Amino acid sequence: RTVGTSLRVAFSSAGMLEKDDSLEFSRCNDVGVVEVYGSTETGGLASRDRSTGQEFFSPLEPVTWLIVEERLYVQTPFLSSDLSVNESGFFLSGDRVRREGDNTFSLHGRADAITKVGGIRVDLDEIRDFLQRQSGVRECVVVPLIDKGGRGNLIAALIRGEEVDVNQLK
After folding, report:
1. Are 108 and 98 in contact (CB under 8 A)?
2. What's the pLDDT tens digit per position in 46-66?
3. Which helix (H) or strand (E) holds 169?
4. For residue 139, what are the contacts with CB-CB under 8 A and spacing of at least 6?
5. φ, ψ for residue 52 (rounded to 5)?
6. Residues linked to residue 73 through DSSP beta bridges, in sequence order
7. Which residues pair with 58 in a beta bridge?
8. What SS3 state is found at 51?
9. What is the pTM of this model?
């Protein structure tokens, strides 16, 4: 346990923290971890600090958001200009969410085939399509596996085919 720490604030924005890890850090350092939800392309969209009892994400100013069929739409001045928006100027995120009260939401996984590996977004459909074009591969399924090391996921591929060169696929 750190005694008399000079740490005033702690942020995490690379991915979801396990609740126990967040609370343990807060206990050991006498400061909460502010988890920021967003991306490089959108900027920060929402935050929470579990050490203060916040279980759900609250939008940051000046973000406007709405949820349609468990999908999160956002308007923010920090949105990258190369991202497409709908006719109302809202960007559709790749995450599934649920409204939790008046002005908070919870995250419930991805609505697309994007996963993080080592903090980098990876499109599982793109990997599957690439593998299926390789010699001898007849069918392929690609899935994320939780990496207990905390850096996102590992990728697993189940391949059916004949005379497949595993070293070439790797």
Report:
1. yes
2. 999 999 999 999 999 999 999
3. helix 166-169
4. 132, 159, 160, 161
5. -100, 10
6. 66, 92
7. 47
8. helix
9. 0.71
Rounded CA-CA distance 129/136 in Å is 14
pLDDT at 40: 83
Strand locations in the chain, DSSP E? 10-12, 33-39, 43-49, 58-59, 64-68, 71-75, 91-99, 105-110, 114-117, 120-123, 137-146, 153-161
H-run or E-run covering 127: helix 124-132
Q: How many residues does the chain have?
A: 170
What confidence tens digit (pLDDT) does each residue in 102-153 have?
A: 899 999 888 888 888 877 888 999 999 999 999 999 999 999 888 776 667 8
- 132 φ, ψ (degrees, to nearest 5): -65, -20
**Selection from 164, 160, 46, 166 nearest residue 107 by Cα:** 46
> Rounded distance, CA 44 to CA 67, Å?
17
